[in-house]
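TICKET: design request
STATUS: open
ATTACHED STRUCTURE:
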């Protein structure tokens, strides 16, 4: 009733303020929370510097910071989006301000690049993993 009309409000809530037809690549919150980064996301940011990175403001900044660093590295603007009335399952969206109609925007889970954290207990985890694999 009041204010400017917004096209596709449900889609905008889901895709952090933008619409599906503008999206280059997207990650779920679960994917963003994983320790490593997705190579496709970095390549998409590098190859689409005129786009904007949208990050879900309902997530901790520590989870988002690895992608903020990549955006900064390639001078891609980013926005942290927080909608008080809706929490999207999407954690990250790279999108233009015009339609590009890319068919596949979601990243497959098996393409994660692991980056070990400082002070990780890899040896202990490996020991337990090997013990369980024997049984």
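STATUS: resolved
RESOLUTION: sequence designed for all positions
ATTACHED SEQUENCE:
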């Amino acid at each position: 009733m009041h204010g400017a009309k917004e096209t596709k409000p449900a889609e905008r809530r889901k895709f952090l303020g933008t619409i599906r037809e503008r999206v280059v690549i997207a990650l779920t919150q679960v994917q963003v929370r994983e320790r490593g980064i997705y190579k496709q996301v970095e390549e998409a940011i590098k190859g689409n510097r005129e786009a904007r990175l949208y990050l879900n403001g309902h997530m901790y900044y520590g989870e988002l910071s690895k992608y903020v660093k990549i955006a900064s590295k390639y001078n891609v603007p980013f926005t942290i989006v927080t909608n008080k009335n809706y929490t999207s399952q999407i954690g990250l969206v790279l999108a233009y301000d015009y339609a590009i109609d890319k068919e596949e925007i979601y990243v497959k889970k098996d393409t994660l690049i692991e980056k070990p954290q400082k002070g990780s207990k890899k040896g202990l985890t490996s020991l337990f993993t090997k013990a369980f694999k024997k049984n």
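CLOSING REMARK: The first strand starts at residue 23 and ends at 28. The chain has five helices and six strands.
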